[in-house]
Amino acid sequence: MPNPTACLLVIGNEILSGRTQDINIKFLATRLGELGIPLREVRVIPDVAETIITTVNTVRASFDHVFTTGGIGPTHDDITSECISAAFGVPWEINDEAYAIMNARYPKGEFNAARQRMATMPRGATLIENPVSAAPGFTIGNVHVMAGVPRIMQAMFECLAPTLEGGLPVISRAVYAMGLLEGAIAADLEAVQKRYPDLDVGSYPFAREIGTGVAIVTKGTDAAAAEAATAEVTAMMTRLGLTPIQGEPA
Where a domain ends, among 118, 134, 163? Predict the structure, then answer.
């Protein structure tokens, strides 16, 4: 059976404006790969209700899992939760379990209307635990809604992960060579990709303090094939008189 697929929606005007740099993509891509749920698409969208609703409905019909980050805080521009409700056509209402968790978190009288927004969710949602700041995320259908703050999102995901049905883990093998130019290996590398159609063979030029070169990264669920493809790339670099180095460049 093919592995289930995933899409990530990064929601927030602050990402699109450049004010905030997203670091959640790398974490989720890595962890989902380990679970055998390859991340196939990432979309960054604004805090605009129509855009969120339309995008959620589009991607949840195309992917096995949809993950969202951002827009579930207590302020007026945190509209992800209510938009998910609209996308699924269900009421947006206080979730009793979430309310109880949040109410217990704050001193008496401080669980105000703004904070109660974080306990308001689509009817029928299942909570995603938040061991950092209590306010939970939620799952409805195949859509998993999490916070945008990386530390909180990561903690939420680790609570969610055991419930996700994945497939074969996606493994990655990398080899690089200093001084290598992409044009010198383009044709040979294309031939490697054709021989291993079930793998993703990527070429990534780099410039570091150590110098410049190209890293070749092979990803897939077949470890033997990935090893074989990497061996071919290593031999290719050696034929060019270069010294292949296993792993990613520092």
Answer: 163
